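Researcher: Good morning. I'm working through a list of sequences from a screen, and I'd like to move beyond sequence-only analysis. For each chain I'm collecting a predicted structure so we can compare shapes side by side. This is the next one on the list. No need for commentary yet; just the structure.
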Amino acid sequence: MINPRALHSLFIVAGSVGILSIASCKNDPKEIDRLVTKHSPQEDRAEDVTILYSEHGHLKARLYAKEFIRNEVAKPPFTDMKKGLKVEFFDDSLKVESVLTARYARYYEKQENVLIRDSIVVVNKKGERLNTEELVWNQSIRKFYTEKFVRITTPTQVMYGDGLEANEDFSWYEIKNPKGIVQVNKSELPE
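Model: Good morning. Structure tokens for this chain:
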């Protein structure tokens, strides 16, 4: 038979250990913040993403992005591509008409605008090359435009200016405020 006095002492010791262990448990607020903010619940992230854009069943563009971050909670919602992107634009025969590369882009789906920044290069099928630091691609009107400095290199000349409007395949473009045109020999052009 168990001694009631020993049983009572056992309950007192067990209860004291339980109370002390509960009292010694506490959460570090910095650790909680680190765990909670590690992944924002309002963002969807993906790496090495390929997106195909089609219209009426015809492929129009293919986008590659190293990092793709979608934020649905922001006003307005947007998608960031912060680690570089490449977009290939196709004609109806699926031949590449132009290629755009840049280091950053932000896509506003509802407005159908893509704000592109940092080291932008657009090359069309004629080999003409646009260099600028900021460009807006409006998908609904299928045009590029900017108010920033632009440089266009063709097989025979280099053109400079501020502001540009161009169609999506870069087969037509207009520099809004031309600053100068330099005639060059094809052998003098950078590759």
